[in-house]
Design a protein that fits this description.
With about 260 residues, the protein is of the alpha+beta class. It folds into two domains: about 130 residues, no CATH class; about 130 residues, no CATH class. Helices cover about 30% and strands about 35% of the residues. It is built from nine helices and twelve strands. Strands 1, 2, 3, 4, 5, 6, 9, 10, 11 and 12 form a ten-stranded mixed beta sheet that branches. A two-stranded antiparallel sheet has the order 7-8. Strand 11 and strand 12 form a beta hairpin. It is globular and about 65 Å long.
Length: about 260
């Protein structure tokens, strides 16, 4: 295996595409398939491994010597699989070409943010023509307006997490924070729904959605989706959603809950 990886010429991009093809062949679902964008850290000592640096690792929950990978997963009612990946290279790597060459990183690889790497993977997935209905991601990617705008321009429906400070355009045309929108919701706006099964059974929360973005294409729906913990009402999460205007709340909730498949 070491000889295969280190001494033989092989097409890593081609292998990635083959893995994607095989995964989608087994799991593909045109309406219910979900692409999930997420990053994770790999603790790593030393200075030689590609991209290793002192940086925040969600795995460790703190700044550590580690490598950071950005991943794209595919999930459907049949199962889940990773279908794409990119290695994040900090600027202190891309600005030192000798160090990059020593680690096998080509001169054509420039600095890219994690969000740019995520967008590149989504572009590859769309170009490949694989069947999927949705994209979801956590706050790190969901709050990036450029990524959301690209998905809208390409008709990619999505449910992406955003922070409570996210500004949204109300139906009256003003800008308002996501948490302020949630605070003004009446009791009748909430529905108790499961977003999927967890280790201890159905993951049940209170959910509400609010129309946002009054300027929209005919037939499109834009919502702020709010999730509230049943046992601890102070724990609230927020999502920006884009889909067909007749999309039921239950479907948005399903997609929001599917993000955890990438953790598995």
């Amino acid at each position: 295996m070491q000889r295969l990886l280190n001494f033989y010429a092989w097409d890593t991009g081609g292998l990635r595409d083959d893995v994607r093809t095989l995964a989608v062949r087994a799991l593909g679902a045109a309406d219910h398939g979900v692409l999930i964008l997420d990053g994770t850290g790999f603790l790593k000592e030393g200075t030689k491994s590609a991209g290793v640096a002192r940086q925040y690792s969600g795995t460790a929950g703190r700044i550590e010597d580690c490598q950071i990978g950005v991943f794209l997963a595919y999930a459907s009612p049949t199962g889940r699989a990773l279908i794409d990946r990119e290695l994040y290279l900090p600027k202190n790597w891309t600005e030192d070409r000798d160090r990059c060459r020593a680690a096998g990183i080509g001169d054509d690889i420039d600095f890219a943010t994690k969000n740019e790497l995520g967008l590149a993977m989504l572009e590859r997935a769309v170009r490949s023509g694989i069947p999927f209905g949705w994209v979801t991601a956590d706050e790190a990617y969901g709050q990036v307006s450029r990524l959301r705008r690209w998905m809208e321009e390409h008709g990619v429906h999505h449910v992406v997490a955003v922070p409570k400070s996210q500004m949204v355009v109300s139906m009256e045309g003003g800008m308002v924070r996501a948490d302020q929108v949630a605070a003004g919701l009446p009791a009748a706006a909430w529905e108790r729904l499961s977003c999927g099964d967890g280790a201890h059974g159905p993951r049940v929360y209170d959910w509400a959605r609010v129309d946002v973005r009054p300027r929209r294409e005919l037939g499109d729906g834009h919502w702020l989706l709010v999730r509230r913990n049943v046992c601890a009402p102070g724990e609230v999460a927020y999502y920006l959603c884009f889909a067909g205007e007749r999309t039921p709340l239950e479907e948005l909730v399903r997609v929001a809950g599917s993000r955890w498949a990438v953790e598995k």
